[in-house]
C-alpha cells in the first residue's frame, strides 16, 4: 500500500466508488503512482443479481398454498414443498429465453390449468436467439399449475409448469 496518508487513500477509493455509481459502471480499476516504489492499485466492482430476483419473485406466490396444506409438518418439509422445481411433475426450462404460452399473440394458449396433456405434447414455447423451441410435456397428466406468465424471461432450470 502507499506510504502516503491512509485517510487520503480511503478518500480516493470512496471517490472511485461514487464515480462507479454515478456513471452506471460495473467495474473500475486504477493504479495510482506516488513515486518509484510507492503506488496504490484499486479495483472496485459492483455486483448485481437482477436475473435471480426476477425469477425468484413468482415462486412464493405459488408455494404459499402448498405450505399451508402441509400444516404441522417438520421444519425441513415446508422448505422442500415451497420449491416448485422439486415437484416430481415439474417441467423445468431447458434453456435461457423468453417463455410464450401460445403459438402467437392473441392465439389460444397451448394448455390451461386443468387441461389433460399427453407425454410429448407441446405445452409452451421458449424463444432463444430468435429460435422458437417447443417445450414438451415430460409426462401425461393434468396441468395443476402454470408458474410463468406469457412473455416472461426464464432461466435454465426454472420451473415452468406442474403436471400431475
UniProtKB/TrEMBL annotation:
Which pathway does the UniProt entry assign to this protein? Lipid metabolism; fatty acid biosynthesis
Domain (Lipoyl-binding) ranges? 88-164
Domain of life the protein comes from: Bacteria
Naming one, the record's GO cellular component terms include: acetyl-CoA carboxylase complex
Alphabetical UniProt keywords: Biotin, Fatty acid biosynthesis, Fatty acid metabolism, Lipid biosynthesis, Lipid metabolism
Q: Name one GO biological process term.
A: fatty acid biosynthetic process
Which InterPro entries does the UniProt entry name for this protein?
AcCoA_biotinCC, Biotin_BS, Biotin_Carboxyl_Carrier/Decarb, Biotin_lipoyl, Single_hybrid_motif
Keyword Lipid metabolism applies: yes
The answer to whether keyword Lipid metabolism applies is yes
Query: Which GO terms fall under molecular function for this chain's record?
Result: acetyl-CoA carboxylase activity
CDD domains reported for this sequence: biotinyl_domain
According to its UniProt entry, what is the function of this protein? This protein is a component of the acetyl coenzyme A carboxylase complex; first, biotin carboxylase catalyzes the carboxylation of the carrier protein and then the transcarboxylase transfers the carboxyl group to form malonyl-CoA.
Name used for this protein in its record: Biotin carboxyl carrier protein of acetyl-CoA carboxylase
What organism is listed for this UniProt entry? Gemmobacter aquaticus
Amino acid at each position: 500500500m502507499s506510504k502516503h496518508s491512509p485517510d487520503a487513500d480511503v478518500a480516493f477509493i470512496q471517490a472511485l466508488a461514487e464515480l462507479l455509481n454515478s456513471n452506471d459502471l460495473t467495474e473500475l480499476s486504477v493504479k495510482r503512482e506516488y513515486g518509484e516504489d510507492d503506488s496504490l492499485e484499486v479495483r472496485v466492482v459492483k455486483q448485481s443479481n437482477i436475473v435471480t430476483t426476477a425469477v425468484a419473485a413468482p415462486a412464493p406466490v405459488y408455494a404459499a398454498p402448498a405450505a399451508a396444506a402441509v400444516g404441522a409438518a417438520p421444519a425441513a418439509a415446508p422448505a422442500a414443498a415451497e420449491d416448485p422445481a422439486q415437484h416430481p411433475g415439474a417441467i423445468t426450462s431447458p434453456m435461457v429465453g423468453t417463455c410464450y404460452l401460445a403459438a402467437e399473440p392473441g392465439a389460444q394458449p397451448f394448455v390451461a390449468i386443468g387441461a389433460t396433456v399427453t407425454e410429448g405434447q407441446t405445452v409452451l414455447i421458449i424463444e432463444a436467439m430468435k429460435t422458437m423451441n417447443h417445450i414438451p410435456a415430460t409426462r401425461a397428466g393434468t396441468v395443476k399449475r402454470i408458474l410463468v406468465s406469457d412473455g416472461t424471461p426464464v432461466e435454465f432450470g426454472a420451473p415452468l409448469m406442474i403436471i400431475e
